[in-house]
Amino acid sequence: MKTLNRINDLVDSISSGLSGALLFCMMVVTFVQVIVRLVKGSLPWSEETARYMQVYLSFLGLSVGVKRHKLISVEVLHQALPLPVQNVLNIIIDIFIGVVSAFLAVASINLSRVTMLQKSPVLGIPMGLIYLAVTIGSILAVFHSLVNVLNAVTGYQPELKAEDVVATEQASEEEK
Fold first, then answer.
1. pLDDT by residue (tens digit) across 158-176?
2. pTM for the structure as a whole
């Protein structure tokens, strides 16, 4: 279990780092586009580039959110339940996320294959590579969901990193 969680953490770190890099690059491309527009005209590739970076950012962010249990949710009912019921509900939610992500992965593989010959209008890259973002993010989400379920079922508690400890302390202070 410890090795699986280390792999899980490594995949999460890589996804997080790529997400941050994509966000930064999107910001730079958009900023440069605004400056160029003010000065001389426009960069035809900037909008399409930023859009495709956002697609990858969204699906990498999905996997990070699954791993860290940070997906948007309604917590009123969840918090009203006793702790053992909350744990069972978390397992059910992780299984559901894994199943939906697996469905997305399978569907997006076919979509990527079909659109590989179609080129993007400005950059001329195969659209299948863009749709591959759904496949990659969904496969990572399935992996993180599986690890979350295994941890919950076995009772394994992964080691907390320093930033996780701080976030947990802040959350408990906010509840008070």
1. 876 666 655 556 656 665 5
2. 0.86
